[in-house]
Fold this sequence. Notes:
The chain is of the alpha+beta class. About 45% of the residues lie in helices and about 25% in strands.
Amino acid sequence: xxxxxxxLLLVEDEAIIAMTEKxxxxxxxxxxxxxSNGREAVEAVETCPQIDLILMDINLGDGIDGTQAAEIxxxxxxxxxxxxxxxxxxEVVEKTEKITSYGxxxxxxxxxxxxxxxxxxxxxxxANYKVERSxxxxxxxxxxxxxxxxxxxxxxxxxxxxxxxxxxxxxxEDELKHLTFNDITYPEDASIGQGVLxxxxxxxIAQCSFEKRYLRKDGSVFWATVSTSLVKSKGQQDHFxxxxxxxTDRKLAExxxxxxxxxxEMMLNVAAEIIMSEDLEGNITMLNDSGxxxxxxxxxxxxxxxxxxxxxxxxxxxxxxVYYAERLSEDLSRVDTHExxxxxxxxxxxxxxxxxSIIRDKHGLPIxxxxxxxxxxxxxxxxxxxxxxxxxxxxxxxxxxxxxEELQLQNEALNARDVKLLESERRLNQAERVARIGNWILExxxxxxxxxxxxxxxxxxxxxxxxxxxxxxIPLPEYRPALNKALADLVAGLAPYDLEFKxxxxxxxxxxxxxxxxxxxxxxxxxxxxxxxxxxxxxxxxALRQSENRYRGFLTSLDAGIVVHAPDTSIQMSNSRxxxxxxxxxxxxxxxxxxxxxxxxxxxxxxxxxxCEYPVNRILASKEPLKDYLAGIRRSxxxxxxxxxxxxxxxxxxxxxxxxxxxxxxxxxxxxNVEKSLQESELKYRSLIESSSDAIFCxxxxxxxxxxxxxxxxxxxxxxxxxxxxTFWDIYPKEHADYRYAATKRVFQTGESESLExxxxxxxxxxxxxxxANPIKDETGTVILSLxxxxxxxxxxxxxxxxxxxxxxxxxxxxxxxxxxxxNMSTMMSLLSLQAGNxxxxxxxxxxxxxxxxxxxxxxxxxxxYHSVEFNRLSIRIxxxxxxxxxxxxxxxxxxVTVEKNIQEFxxxxxxxxxxxxxxxELLTNSMKYAFLGREHGLITVSATNIDxxxxxxxxxxxxxxPESVSWDNSTGFGLQLVKALTVQxxxxxxxxxxxxxxxxxxxxx
Length: 1006
C-alpha cells in the first residue's frame, strides 16, 4: 500500500534558498508549498488544509517574523512547526521553544539532518496527540462520571475526588483531602468492608463491593454501594480507586415496600371475606387467610391451582369458563357480581357470593381477575326456610278459603305448625345474626313492613314500632331515589332488586354499608327482601385498593428492577424498570422461569454464565439471600449487555416453606464501562510510553530511578529492570550526575519543567540528548516525581558543532572582508581627493570633490552598519547625527554655522539609509556652499520623524534662499537631479519652501 506524501509548508524569504530546499526535500519524497513571508504562511495554512508540517524561517524581512507567524497559526491550527534558521543564539532557540517544541534546525544543516528532524517532529506530534487524547478522555470520564469516584491512599486519605463524590458528601475537594474514609463512615458501619479490603491488599481478591452508611458534611446519613480495587504502580501498592453509588432512595423504597407489603398482607388476611386473584386461565395467584379457612385448605397449597377445576362442581365448570371469557370481552372497568356453589376440601358444598373485577397492566390490557367472595351458605339456607314458610302460608290460606269445616279440622294441626314456625323463625333470626343479614317483607296493599330481628339489628331500629315513612328516611338522601326506582322496577318486572347503599343508624349515628336484594310475589303483592351489613367488606376493599395502589406506585417509581418469582422460578410480577433493563415486556416475562432459554446471563468477563449460577437458581439452591451479585444480561433485541448489581431474598412461610423469591437489581453499566475505560486508558499510556521514540525515565527527589522505557535502557545495553533503584551517580560520572541532579532538584523546588542538553558517555561513543524534565504532582500540588523525555540530538549536535566551526571561520573571513572593504573605500576617497587636487579644470575638480563627499556618506553608513547588532538595519539618529557632523567638517566655515538636530529614534534598513544619506549630503552641501555667503553666522536645522510608518525628513537653513527660478524639474545641477532621482527611488515626495531661507521637506513610507 503506497504511503501518502507528507505536505510541507516552507517559509523562506530568500527565493534562491527556497528553490534549493524545495528541490532537495522533493527528492526525499515530500510535497512542498512555498511562502516568502509570515503573512503568506498564515494564508497558506488557512487555504491548504493538507499541510502536515511547517518549516519556518525566523527572519522574513518586512512584516511579521517567523515566531509571530507561528503563534498566529497555532492559535487556530494544531500543526507541527519546525524552525529552520541561521541563528544559533540561546535566546533565539529558547524563544522558539516557548512557541512549539517540535525542533530547531540550522539552515546550514545537511538535507539528511533536516529530513531526520522532520521525521522526529512527526513522531513527536503523533505521540503528543495520543497522550492528549488519552489524558482528556480519562479526565472527562473521571470528572463527569455520574457516580462518585475517588482515589484513596493506602493510609485511607483522599487523594483525588470527582465532582459527583463532592456533591454526594457536601465537602469540597480540599476539605476531603484532610479527611479519611473512616472520618465520613457512620460509626456503626465502621467494620463493614474491612475484611475484604485486607483481602485486596494481600492479593487474595482483585476488587470488592459492599453497602454501608456514610455521613455528609451536614451530618445527614446516607446509604451507598461501594466498589473498590487496588491500583499498583511499578509493582508497588499505590492507591485504591473507589466508586460510590448513593442507594439511600433504594433503601428507603425497599423498607417502604416491605412495610407496604406487610400492611397489605395483614389487611388481606384480616378481611372476613375471601380475597382471591387469578390469571386469565383461572389459576390462583393469591388467596387470603379467610379464603383458605372457608375452602378448608392450608396456605399456600392453593397458589397455582386452577380455581374452576379445584372448587366448582362439574356441572357448572363450563358455565363459569364461558362467564370468564365473556367478561374479558365486556367493559373491563366494570365490577359485576354472581354467586355459585363451591366444593371445599372436605367435600362440603358452600354458596359464595362473588364480586369480580379485571386486573389490568399499565397498558390497560387484562392480566387476571380479582374477586372478593362472601360465604352466604347460611343466608341461602335462611332464604330457603323463608320460602318454605311462605309456601306453607299459601297452602294454609287455600285450605281456609275452601272450607271452614276443614279449617276447624286443621285448627289443631295449624297450632302445631305455628309452634314449628315459631321455632323456624327463631332459628332464622339466629342465622341472621350469625350471617349479619336481615329479612324484611313489604305488603304493598297496606304499605306496611315486617322485619325479623336481623334487620332490626342492622338498621338500629324496631321495625314493629316505627312507620314505613320513618324507615325510608334511614338511608342517606343521595341513595333514596335509587331505592325507590329499584322497588318500582322490581314490581314492574323491569329489573331485579339488587343494590348497595349507605344508611345512618338512628341509634348510634354511624354510617353503615348495606347490600339488599328482594323478590316480588305478584300473587300476594308482597315484596320479600334480604339486607346485609357489608361495612367491613367495603372498608377492606377500600384499604386493599389503596394498598395495591401504593404498592404498585412504589414498584413503578423505583430505579431498581424488581422481579417476583414463584417457588418454581416462574415470574409472578415485575415492574417497568425491570422490563426496561431486561429488554422484555412485563407480559413477556410473566410466567418465564429461571431456566428459560430467553435469558442470557454473562459473568464479569462476558462469558456465558452457567444455569446454576443464575441469581434465582443460586437462591433456590441455598435458600439464603444473595447480596451484590454482579452479572451481565445480554438483551436479545439489541444484543447489548446490561451490567446489573443483583440482590435477592427468599420469602418463607411460617412452616419454613419457600413462598416466593424477590429479586432487585440496579443498572451499573456506566460504572462497568468506566472501569473498563480506566483499564484501557492505563494500557494505552503504557503502550504509548513503550512505543515512544523518546528515551523516557522517571526519578524521585533523590535522583533514584523509578521507571525507564525500553528505548532508554537499550541505549546503555540494559533492561528497564536494571535501572530501578539506581541513582544518577550509579550510571554516570560524578560531574554528569551532579549536572543532571541539579536540574532535577530545580523541578522539585519550582514545580516547573526544566529543559537541558545532556551528554551520555558510552564506552565507544558519546551521545547527546535534549531532555525535558516535567513535574508529576499529587493532589496537594506537591511534586512527587520528575518525568523526563529525552530526544536523541546526537546527529544534530554534531552538525551544530560543525556549523559552529564553519561560522567561526566565516566570522574571521567576514571581519577580513569588512576590513578590506573599508580600506578600499578609504583608498577610493583618497584617490578622488588626490585627483581633485591635481585637476586643473574647476568643473572637473568640483565633480571629483562631490563624488568624494557622496562616497563619504556611504562610508559613514557602512561603518555604522558594521558596528551595529543588525548588519542591515540601523538607528536613524545614530546615522544622521554622524553624517551631519562628517559633512559639515569638510567646510572651512563650519564653525560659523549652528546645527540643530531633532532626530526621532527609529530604525531603517540599509537600502533606505543609503538613499537618504546621499540626499542629506547633497542638501547640507548646498546650504554650506550657497546659503551663508557674506554672513558671519548661520543656522541649519535637521529633523526626522516617523509617524504611522511615514518618515518625514526636514533640512532647513536661514540663509539667502534658492532662487524662484530653480526647481526640482528644471535644475541643471547634478546635485538636485540626484536628490530628485533618489526621492523617486524611495517612492517618496519632496517639496521646497523659500520663506526665511530654504526648507526642504522629504517624505516616504516604510
